[in-house]
Amino acid sequence: MALSVGDFFVRIGADLGDFKAKMREFSDELKVAEDNIDKLSKRLAQGAVAMGTAVTAFVALSAKGFAQAGSELNMLSKRTGVSVEFLSRLSYVAAQSNTSLSSFEVGMRRLQGTLTDAQGGMESYQKAFATLGLDYEQLAMLSPEEQFRRVLYALGGVTDATVRASLAVDLLGRSGTDMLPIISDGAAAFEAAMQAADDLGVTMDESAVAAAQELSNAMTDVHAAVGGLTRAIAEGIAPLLTELADDIAGVVSAV
């Protein structure tokens, strides 16, 4: 059956109406998709900012910890004559036994004194070294690091806890007993723990400590510069603040 011209335009109009309706529906869906994409983009941007902030904070905290640890090892090495590598490993081992490097430093100083006194003829210290099976004359010729290691190992070999603690105090001072947990499981366990520090990457060598010391010095300079700027600003506004304070005091007094 043939369509008239009128029917043709009616059919076209209906088809166009459906097309326009579908286009409006598609446009609405597209708008919703755009809104969702915009919201997602904002969330991603917020997440990126948060992650960036967290990463920055982590890096800053890590740098501060690195600088502090390296500086402390550097100073302790200079005070005791023990290598930073050994001190770094010992710090890890000490932490496993709830002991601190400060006890080690005090013990090292006492050990140097007892060795000197034993060489000077003090029989009580000579007897203490002999009880541990150590020759104080030979011990005195070793490096401070090796002296500490041998005395600590010898103490670990004493089975009587009371005698072990007494000898530790005699040779290493009051901090001597603090270091006994380090060697409580024997020399082999101590060396295994020292090796673990290397395996875990926590040991700092001379170059790392030097870099940490430079970073620590730079951070100190930054704090000093900020402090200088703060004082300069305070000095500049001090007269204005003084005048304001005087005015306020005058008003309060009048009231």
Describe this structure in words.
The protein is built from ten helices and no strands. Helices cover 84% and strands 0% of the residues. The radius of gyration is 38 Å and the shape is flat. The longest helix is centred in the first third of the chain and has 76 residues.
Task: Give a short synopsis of this structure.
This protein has 255 residues and is mainly α. 84% of the residues lie in helices and 0% in strands.
Number of DSSP E strands: 0
Order of helices and strands: HHHHHHHHHH
Q: Low-confidence parts lasting 5 or more residues at pLDDT below 50?
A: 54-61
CA-to-CA gap between the ends?
Answer: 105 Å
How would the global form be characterised?
flat
Descriptors:
single chain, 255 residues
Give the arrangement of secondary structure elements.
Elements: H1 5-80, H2 84-96, H3 101-119, H4 123-131, H5 136-140, H6 144-156, H7 161-172, H8 176-179, H9 187-199, H10 206-254
Helix pairs in contact: 1-10, 2-9, 3-4
